[in-house]
Design brief:
The complex is a heterodimer of chains A (196) and B (237). Chain A is an all-alpha fold and 196 residues long. Helix content of chain A is 65%, strand content 1%. In chain A, helix 1 packs parallel to helix 6. Chain B is an alpha/beta fold and 237 residues long. In chain B, strand 8 and strand 9 form a beta hairpin. The longest helix of chain B has 28 residues. The chains are: A mainly alpha (196), B alpha/beta (237). Chains A and B meet through helix 1, helix 2 and strand 1 of A and helix 1, helix 2 and strand 7 of B. Strand 1 of chain A pairs antiparallel with strand 7 of chain B.
Chain lengths: 196, 237
């Protein structure tokens, strides 16, 4: 796979994740308003939420590693901060999914919110470099210098932002659960937490 | 369908969507030569960089040829002791020392000298064509100039440096015209002789000299017109 193909692939995945998040939130609102079909769909989706979030985090992590290790895109300072936030998530979410521990979202929340905030700022200064009163370094890439802009606006920072937001959407727009925790991690509070 | 099977079906469906998108990407990119890597029509100053570029460190391509005239880099003669690399602008050991004299050319071949005694202070601005912060800095400087906010006796001179033929806005000779740079500009050599002589560590890199070529201040990074005006005022006292 060429770098150009990877850019297109991950850009399309970004669209899919954004669209999926919007649909997810739409179903959630419909279920909250008592729509039976949405509630049924939501119940099924809700059971898979942690696995889906794991899939998103894993894809983001592998994509990040591809662009730095295979495509040789040198990560800037803000890229590194986002990596620090993203890389633990597949591991945390995998453990949470295997344990069917819906409380895993509370461990993901602070990390993903910080990552999303940094990604939003990074995307902003890519368009408005004057807001970042830094300099282009001699020894590393500037945070406002971009590697590519697929479709005119999809950059690595936007991919990162959508990834974090999608993970948060999957974990925090929760549907009434039908499962209970496998062990005591949050088993006593699973039923209590079925409403958002 | 059991709960476990439902979850499996949903996650499996998501994986299939990912594979489908991968297939679409492979088919779509096989239909062209991969020239859709980047849209560079981004916002002000933002540009794309290419793999393998160390920011400021790439000098590959025909632009790196500074033998003879007409290139995007030219020979620069440095006379005097080079300034130390800029660390903290607030504690800069170069302040108060004599800057080396730079002899070089503008893009049109006109000889230009920086650092020699003049009638007033000189602000030297080192610019890299691919640098978003340099692209943001230039309109702010022009705004100051057009508003009459620059001191009358202040000379402004640019230095086009860190030229990379495979990076955004190349060639700098055209870029500087498109940006409307109204002041003289020296063309640095392929090994950044002028930048190194003045201790530049990032872009844009600005050095204020007094009329005798003594360093008054150095700074790295861009700023708004107001911030630049404040810096000039403080620097010139």
């Amino acid at each position: 796979m060429t770098t150009e193909t990877a850019q297109l692939f991950f850009s399309l995945l970004t669209f899919a994740a954004a669209a999926g998040s919007i649909v997810w939130i739409g179903v959630w609102f419909a279920a909250r308003r008592g729509h039976d079909g949405a509630a049924q769909l939501g119940a099924s989706l809700g059971e898979a939420a942690i696995w889906l979030a794991f899939l998103v985090a894993l894809t983001c992590t592998l994509g990040s590693l591809y662009f730095s290790e295979v495509a040789d895109f040198i990560p800037c300072r803000l890229c590194w901060f986002q990596r620090i936030a993203m890389y633990p998530l597949p591991v945390i979410l995998l453990v949470g999914a295997l344990r069917r521990d819906r409380g895993v979202r509370w461990y993901v929340l602070p990390v993903a919110v910080i990552g999303a905030g940094i990604a939003a700022y990074h995307y902003l200064i890519e368009w408005r470099p004057e807001l970042d009163h830094g300099a282009c370094g001699l020894t590393g890439p500037s945070c406002s210098a971009i590697w590519f802009r697929e479709f005119g606006f999809v950059t690595l920072a936007l991919m990162s932002l959508v990834g974090f937001v999608t993970i948060l959407t999957l974990l925090f727009f929760r549907f009434p659960a039908t499962l209970s925790g496998r062990d005591g991690t949050e088993s006593g509070s699973v039923q209590k937490e079925t409403s958002l | 369908m059991s709960q476990r099977n439902r979850t499996l079906a949903i996650v499996g469906g998501a994986v299939l969507v990912v594979l489908l998108i991968l297939g679409i990407a492979l088919v779509a990119s096989s239909g062209d030569d991969g020239d859709d890597t980047a849209s560079t029509e981004a916002g002000a100053g933002a540009g794309t960089v290419e793999p393998g570029d160390e920011a400021g460190g790439s000098e590959s391509g025909d632009g790196a040829d500074d033998s003879g005239s007409g290139g995007e880099t030219r020979s620069v003669t440095v006379t005097g002791e080079p300034l130390p690399p800029l660390g903290s602008p607030d504690d800069d050991p170069a302040v108060g020392t004599q800057a080396p004299v730079l002899d070089g050319e503008e893009f049109d071949g006109t000889p230009i000298t920086i650092g020699a005694p003049t009638d007033g202070p000189t602000m030297v601005v080192f610019l890299a064509h691919w640098c978003p912060h340099c692209n943001a800095e230039i309109p702010e400087l022009i705004e100051l100039d057009e508003a009459g906010s620059l001191p009358e006796d202040l000379d402004v001179v640019g230095v086009s440096t860190a030229v990379a033929a495979d990076r955004d806005n190349y060639p700098p000779s055209e870029w500087i015209v498109e940006k409307g740079w109204p002041w003289p500009i020296m063309v640095d050599s392929a090994d950044f002789a002028a930048l190194d002589a003045y201790g530049g560590t990032g872009f844009p890199f600005t050095v204020m000299l007094d009329e005798n070529g003594v360093v008054l201040a150095r700074k790295s990074g861009s700023g708004s017109a107001e911030e630049i005006a404040d810096w000039i005022e403080i620097t010139l006292g």
